[in-house]
Amino acid sequence: MLADLAEVVRESFSPAAWLIVEDNEVVGLCSVKAPPSGGVIDIGYGVAPTRQNRGIAGRAIGEIVAWARKVPQVRAVTAETTPANFASQRVLERNGFVKVGKRVDEEDGPVLCWRCPTD
Question: Is the domain covering 2-117 a CATH 3.40.630.30 domain?
Answer without folding.
Answer: yes
